[in-house]
Specification:
It contains 10 helices and 8 strands. The protein is of the alpha+beta class. The chain is globular.
């Protein structure tokens, strides 16, 4: 079974671009490391997620531990240290059989347990797991014990369908009472939010255990809806109305256009995703490659058609 290293780190605001570039270099570097499968980078999304979240998947626990202890990784970390604030949270999590399931809202909770209190803490963990299983919107729950020599904390990962449901559980009186019960058992309690990018627009409620969608497919469908929205708003509203009639500056007009674009894109992308379900999740592994190519070619043709029509008409 594969495992994932989940790293959450706080980057100095003025160093965000440098860190993204550094992480891109790290992605290229780690791609040749034995046992490496994939890496995903999730930038901050304030106010709920203020950290950068890096997910690195390996074929085995041994491969993940080798990477964590490698001098190559230590050298990379030393290069990034001036960009960071505070400590990193690094956790190793065993993947489910179908792989990492993204969710619109997730939280990673790490707990340092007092020596000799491990058995009592595990009993408490079963108690809170039973309580949160009744929380509205819960999509999944993972509990990971410490990994000797690598991870000293107990780690819990909760996935919810919406940020509102996640916040409702985190702030509930039931959870607060349970946290108070665990106070004599723990030394340190640390919670960090993690939110994915476009995943919330591509939820498959009929298949909640499905593997995550390829990011490039989600990006292509988002662009398919975003381009005509931005173009048509600029042609029919931005220039003739906001700029010429009301005399708004380009900066203000663009900002208002972005508000409209984000709202309409969030509405239209789930709709178009439903029509491209055959491409997002091919029904047969034998024809998957052909389906990938066919769907991508169709969307590229739609891109070209829109550009041509807009170019000729406007």
């Amino acid at each position: 079974m594969s495992v994932s290293i989940v790293t959450q780190t706080c980057v100095r605001p003025e160093k965000a671009e440098d860190f993204a570039r550094w992480q891109g270099e790290t992605s290229t570097f780690i791609s040749s490391f034995p046992g490496f499968l994939e890496q995903r980078l999730m930038p901050p999304k304030p106010p709920l997620q203020v950290d950068w979240v890096i997910l690195q998947r390996f074929t085995s626990l041994e491969a993940a531990r080798t990477w964590l202890a490698s001098p190559e990784r230590q050298t990379r970390i030393e290069g990034a240290s001036p960009m960071l604030v505070g400590r990193d949270d690094v956790h190793i999590v065993q993947d489910e059989a179908e792989g990492i399931k993204p969710a619109p809202a997730s939280v990673v909770i790490s707990t340092r347990v007092r020596p000799g209190k491990e058995v009592e803490y595990r009993a408490w963990e079963r108690k809170i797991a039973a309580a949160q299983s009744k929380a509205p919107g819960l999509q999944g729950y993972r509990f990971e014990p410490p990994v000797p020599g690598v991870q000293e904390d107990f780690v819990a990962i909760l996935r919810f369908d919406t940020e509102a449901n996640l916040q409702a559980w985190l702030g509930s009186s039931v959870r607060r009472k349970l946290i108070e019960e665990a106070t004599p058992l723990t030394e340190e309690f640390h919670t960090r939010m993690a939110r994915t990018g476009f995943d919330q627009w591509f939820q498959d409620n009929a298949n909640p255990g499905a593997a995550p969608l390829p990011v490039w497919k989600m990006d292509m469908l988002v662009l398919l809806m975003l381009y005509p929205i931005v173009f048509l708003f600029g042609v029919f509203v931005g220039t003739p109305l906001l700029s010429n009639v009301f005399g708004l500056s380009f900066a203000v007009s663009l900002f208002l256009g972005n508000i409209v674009s984000v709202g309409l894109t969030g509405f239209l992308v789930p709709w178009v995703a439903g029509h491209f379900g055959w491409w997002l999740r091919p029904a047969s592994p034998e024809t998957a490659v052909r389906t990938h190519v066919l769907g991508a070619a169709l969307i590229l043709a739609m891109y070209a058609a829109m550009v041509f029509v807009f170019w000729r008409l406007f």
